[in-house]
C-alpha cells in the first residue's frame, strides 16, 4: 500500500486503496471533491451523485478518518501546487473509520493559531505538513548518521539515563530514589563520562543518538531535553575527529538537501572569531567584521573612550537608510548586551553623527583612513570592557545582517572554531571555571600553565558552526591521570569533591586509558537549520515551552501525598 503523494500521472488507470484524514470537502454542482491527506501529502477524491457512497460522502467533515478504493484518473484542471496535482481518484468504495470534533485551529501551514494553542493540541499540529516534514527530515538525518557510523566500524551503545549528579555547567534534573531514601539520581546532561569509560573499556569507536537534559533558561534554539548525535574514538587527534564529523555533515547535506559542502572546512581560532565577529559561532554568510580602533583614541578627549577598548562596525553605503529613530532602537538593542551606549557616525562629505563634534581632526582623519570610509557609509562604535564590546557588536552584526537582507536563501557557511581557552572567568564565583568540562585536554604546550597562567591556557577543543549556530562541539579528552589531577587542582576542587563527584571515573583512568576524543552534534539544532526554521520546537514531536512546560500533557504537575511519602519527600511552602 502506497501513500497518497507516491502516485503520479504514470499511475493512471490503477486501482488503489488510500487511507487518511479529510483535509477539505467541496461540493461543486453535485460532485463532491475530497482532499485526502496522509503523511505524504494530498490526493483529490471524486464522488459523483450516481455513487452509492454519495450520501455518506455528504456527511463527511474535515479531519474525519476515511478509507477509500478507486481508480486513478487524469484531472481536468491541474493543480501545480501539489505533487499529485495532475491526477485524482474516482471513488468506488468509501468507509468512514472515525469522526472528529470541530478542530481548534486550521490544519494548514499558514495557520494563524498561537503557538501555545498548537502545543496544547500538538497531536493535531503534527498533522500540518510543516511539522510532519520536519519529523521526516529528522528521521532521515538519523538514518544517514547510523549508516555512516556503521560503515566506519562504530558501535551504537546506550548509556544510562539514571546517573550520579556531576557538575557539567548547568543544573541537573534530579530523580529521587525510593529504595535509597534521601538520595537522588540525575538525568544526564550528556553521556560524557560514560562514553569516555567506553573508551577505557576498549570499544574504540562509539556513537549514540541520545537524550540529554539540562535545567537551564530556555530560548528559541534550546530545550530542557534535547537529542545529541554523540560519538567518541580512541587513538585519534583533533584533526581526525573533525574529519569524521565534517564528512558526516557533508553526507547529510548531500543526501537530504542535495547540497555539496566543500571539504575540508576552514578552521578559525577562538580568539580570531571573538575579535573579528564578536562570537564563537560566527555567521559567515555575510561580512560586517568588527574593527578594533582603540589605537585611534589613545589620546582622546572623549571621556567614555579613554583607557578602554573601542571597536566599530562599518555598514557600507547605507547611512541614508538609517533614521535617528532606527539608530536609537539599535542603541537600546546593544544595551541588552550590557553596552553603555552606541556611537554612530555617517560619512556625508564629512563625518557627522553623535560624537562628530567631539572628534579631533586627527581622529577624524584616522577613522576615515583606517575604516576606509566612503560616501554614505555608516559606522557603529561601542567602547568599554572587551567582553561587552565584542558580545554587543557581535549581536548587532547579526541583527544588521538580517535587517539588511545580507543573507541569501539556501546559503550555508560552515567552519570549525578551534583552540578554545581552557578556562573562563566567572564574575559570580570570582574564579576561573572550565570553559567546556573538566575532562577537556589542554594543548600539550599549555599543560604547565594549568596552575600558573590560566588566562593563556588553551585546549584541544573544537566546535562546528553552521550559519551562526553551534551545531556541535567536542574535544580530545584527558587520558593521563596526572594531567587530570592537575586540571582538578586548577579548578580548585578539593580531594573530597573529586572523590564524591568523579571517584569512579578517576579510578578508571588508572587502568590503561587510551588517548581518545569525540564530539556531539545537536540533532534538534541541525534539523532546525536544514528545515529553515528558527524555532527548535518545530522539529521536535512533543516539545516544551519557554517555561519548560508541556501544555498538552500538563507537565510538570503535582503528585499525590502517597507518592511523596514513599520517596521520603516533603514539599515546603
Give a description of the structure.
The protein is α+β, with helices and mostly antiparallel strands and 573 residues long. Helix content is 28%, strand content 25%. It contains 15 helices and 22 strands. The protein has an eight-stranded mixed beta sheet with strand order 6-9-10-22-21-20-17-11, with helices on both faces. A five-stranded mixed beta barrel has the order 1-2-3-5-4. β14 and β15 (350-353) form a beta hairpin. The protein starts with 14 loop residues before the first strand and ends in a 6-residue tail after the last helix. The model has no long low-confidence stretch (mean pLDDT 95).
Helix % is 25-40%
Strand content: 15-25%
Biggest sheet statistics:
8 strands, mixed
Overall, the morphology is globular
* Secondary-structure content class: alpha+beta
Radius of gyration: 29 Å
